[in-house]
Amino acid sequence: MQQKLKILHVQLLPLLSGVQRVSLNEIAHLKSDFDYSLVCASEGPLTEALTAINIPCYSIPQFCRELSVSKDLSALSALFKLMRQKKFDVVHTHSSKTGVLGRIAAKCAGVPKVIHTVHGFAFPAATSKKSYYLYFFLEWFAKFFTDELIVLNEKDREIAINKLGYAKKLVHIIANGVDVDKFVPNIIGRSPEKIKIIMVGRLWPQKDPKTLFNAIKRLLDDNINVSVTYVGDGELMHELKGLAQGYTENISFLGWKDNISELLPQHNLFVLPSLWEGMPLAILEAMSCGLPCLVTNIPGNNDLVKDGYNGFLFEVADHEKLSFLIKKYYQNPDMLLQHAENARTFVQENFTLDARNDAVSKIYKS
Hints:
The structure is a single chain. This protein folds into two domains: 6-177 and 352-365, Rossmann fold (3-Layer(aba) Sandwich); 195-350, Rossmann fold (3-Layer(aba) Sandwich), CATH 3.40.50.2000. 46% of the residues are buried. The strands form two sheets. It has a seven-stranded parallel beta sheet with strand order 3-2-1-4-5-6-7, with helices on both faces. By secondary structure, the chain is of the alpha/beta class. It contains 14 helices and 13 strands. Helix content is 42%, strand content 16%. Helix 3 (69-86) crosses helix 4 and helix 7 (209-221) crosses helix 12.
């Protein structure tokens, strides 16, 4: 019997946000084909879910999002030792800085194949020249430690080839996929008499949850029957809860949840006001559950949401346009239901989990 390839996924945080759920979904569906392991900063919902299906998980506490020479060098050393000891055949990295450290460590440890998935390049959305050139340099430098690059949309493919200098044959567009048998619509309790909105994602500046709050506040002040549920946690949670004082009947915060497939169908509209993305799994899961999506007009988002078909697009930080679009659905329930049907069909025809995993599996084995 041929020995299974040993694959290590490298993630930063042990959460169950979109980036981590991509790895979890893959591992859960392909664990009979490959010998998987995972390394991240600490234990958490992601490692608990993987441990439950007998996937080894390792922790490197020195992993951190901010730049820190001492912590980053320590994390690099720990990664190198782990990879050298376990002799993985494939290392698959995620996230920006963790992806750089993971790829360098893997090549230095002699890992035969090093793969990185871009969940949205950070440098195009940098707010200063210093940040732009720093993140650009890190991505450019990591290219020399990368055997295959997976991107989620055509825009990021162009960036990888034309700006970072990747060879075309090394860059693969593999869209995220969703389990359409798990994420299914439920029309019960979705009366258009009230717009029930849900946002799933980390509550930090990249996701810009405050724009959604500002839109909801505007609608509530105009006596529009609307509510919003934030699913996720992050550094903006405390601030958002403070802003929501006085609106607690209509704005709720659930923190991280592992029953997203049950929560989504209890709502009838999904919003994601991100500043940048790769291809949000959260959008695909929402559409699979029959939720039209209101999302920012950025690469990744606008690859999924077709304006006026399965949702609408609005510009970054434009809470006035967002509130207008929510009100539009409120006033046009037939359009809401039609877009809900379109959303479900769109995912079924284009973004199944099986198609995504088949494509990744071929890269592992090539």
